[in-house]
Amino acid sequence: MLLKKRSKHFLIFLTLISFAASSFAQDVTKVYKGNPSPYDGWCLTERAMAKIIADKEQEDDRCQLKLGEELEKLNAKHSLKVDNLTLRIDSLEKEMESIISIKNEEIEKLEQIALDKPNNYWYLFTAGGFVVGVGVTVGIVYILGL
Q1: What three-state secondary structure class fits 115?
Q2: Which ranges of the chain have pLDDT less than 70?
Q3: Which domain holds residue 68?
Q4: In DSSP terms, which residues pair with 123 in a beta bridge?
Q5: What is the pLDDT of residues 38-67, one digit of tens each?
Q6: Is 26 helix (H, G, I), strand (E, B) or coil?
Q7: I want to staple 43 with a disulfide (CB 3.0 to 4.6 A). Which of 18, 21, 31, 116 is the partner?
């Protein structure tokens, strides 16, 4: 009777342990040489193998997604730089146009002033040139003592 009672307790204990062990089972277990496998390695459950396969299949999608994000960032960054440079070019063109306009107005004003006051002093310049020429010639003759 005692043996029957103990064997009952043992079987209950064994059943509880087997259920507990299966609930704590891992997806990956190690298989050693001499066991059902002829070499050292890892035995994977279907769930673990499915996860590995799914990760491998999704790796390309993840890389493409990451590349797409980086490409969008770079495009936005370079688009901003191009827009800033275009704006700078436009502002410099407007500035250049205003400077050219001011320059042309000043040239027209100076032309008008020149036309309003003609330079009729040619005879003074001719006489001045004649006097300077005679003075230089006389000076040279005086210095050389001829």
Answers
A1: helix
A2: 1-43, 146
A3: 23-144
A4: none
A5: 555 666 777 888 888 888 888 888 889 999
A6: coil
A7: 31
